[in-house]
Amino acid sequence: MRVLLILVGVLLSVVSARAERAIPSGKPLMLFSGSSTNPDCTSAGNLEVRVVQGPEHGKVSVRKTGVFPTFASSNPRSACNLRRVSGIVATYVSQRGYVGDDLVVIEVFSPDGRSKRMTIAIRVV
Fold first, then answer.
1. Which of 13, 35, 36, 108 has its CA 20 to 30 A from that of 43?
2. How many other CB atoms are there within 10 angstroms of residue 60's CB atom?
3. How far apart are CA 41 and CA 18, in angstroms?
4. Cα–Cα dist 17/32, whole Å
């Protein structure tokens, strides 16, 4: 069973990744959106997202919600791209009025035991 981690705007290596993002102060920034999806669009199990290092100038929230996957058209699961599937989202919001740099490290665990650690540098403007 393959698990697909869908990342918004960030491509990951097998073990870890580093990404840089920019967001206006006080506005939400999606750090991660992912699902573990079967070919029939049912859940293949739950992903778990842990905040390894929280931001110094904001907060990260993690919630289970419906997400739209982004499977390649050649993938049998691409039909799932048109509907919400069970997933998880991690979002960052800076402290009100803060302008500067922040950093978040999250780790995502898939139902088959794989994990990926992501370091996200955030520029708050």
1. 13
2. 20
3. 29
4. 12
* Backbone torsions φ then ψ of 39, nearest 5 degrees: -60, -25
Which residue from 111, 2, 106, 3 is spatially nearest to 47, judged by alpha carbons?
A: 111
Residue type, 9: G
* pTM metric for this prediction: 0.81
Q: Where are the domains of the chain?
A: 16-124
Beta bridge partners of 80: none
Residues 6+ positions from 97 with CB-CB distance below 8 Å: 25, 26
- Collapsing DSSP to helix, strand or coil, 79 comes out as helix
List 104's β-bridge partners, or say none: 120
Note the CATH architecture for domain 16-124. Answer: Sandwich (2.60)
